[in-house]
Amino acid sequence: MISKKIVVKYNFWFNNYVEQFIQQYPGLSENIEIKADHCRKVGEEIVGIAQSLKLNERDTLLAKTIGLFHDVGRFKQYVKYQTFSDSKSQNHGELALEVLKENTVLNDLSGENQDIIFKSILNHSRAEIELDKNDKVIFFSKLIRDADKLDIWRLITEYYMVKEQKPARLSADKAGPAGGENKTLQLELPDSDEISGQVVNAIVNKKVVLKENLKTLNDFKLLQIAWVFDLNFNYSIKKLYNKKYLDKIFETLPISTEVDQIREIVNKYFITTMSTKRE
Length: 279
Ligand SMILES: [Fe+2]
What we know:
Blueprint: H1 4-24, H2 29-52, H3 57-69, H4 74-81, H5 92-102, H6 111-124, H7 135-165, H8 172-175, H9 197-204, H10 217-226, H11 234-243, H12 245-251, H13 257-275
Bound molecules: fe (ii) ion (FE2).
Fe (ii) ion binds next to loops.
C-alpha cells in the first residue's frame, strides 16, 4: 500500500538515479538538471491540484508518485539521442515504463496502483488520453497532464524571456552563436519568423496540434498556448491565468493577424471557462 514512507523512498531513488547520469555525462548535466527539476516540481504541482480536489492521502501520494516519475524516461532518451523530440528518438513515456520496470521501483505497490501509474505516464505524452475501463486511470491521467503543462509553462516562459533578453540576439559575436539558446528545449526547431498555417488552423478549429506538424519555434509556442484548451481542472486554469504564462509567450511571438486571432480566442476561452463552474 502506498504510504509517505514509500514516497520518501521514491524521492531518494529518483535523486540517486539522476545523480548517476550527471556523474556519467557531465557535459549533458544542464538539461539533465532541468528535467530532474521539472519532475520534482510536477510532483509538487500535482499535489496542489489534488488538494484543490480534496483527494484523500493515498490518492494524493499516488498522484505525487506519477508526477515525480512521469519524465523519468527523459534521462535515457537524452544521453542516448541528445534530444527531447520523441519523433527523432523514442517515446519518452514508454522509456519511463522501461526504467521503472528494469529497476523494479514500484514493486511495493499493488497491481492496480502500478497499472494506474504506468498508464497515466503513457497518457501524459499522448496527444489525447486513451480510453480505459478503470476510471482512476483516466482521472490520474488528467491530473498529470494538467500538472505537467503548468510546470512546462513555468519552465519555458522563464526560458523564452531570458532568451529574448540575451545580448546574443543583438551581437552574436560577443556571446557566441548559441547565445542564450537551448536547442534541446526548443526541440531543435529553427527560431525563424514563420508560423505554419496548419498549426494556426488547428488552433482556430480547436483541434489538437500534433508535434509532428511543428516546423518553427513559433509553431511550438503556439502549441504550448493551445494547451489551455486541454486543461481538466479549475485549479489549473486559474493558476495559468494568475501566473500570466500565456501573455508571456504571446509577448515573444511576432506581431501578426494570425497571432492576434489566436490571442482573441484564448482570451474568450478564459472568460467563458472561468465563469462556468467545474471541478
Ligand atoms: Fe513528459
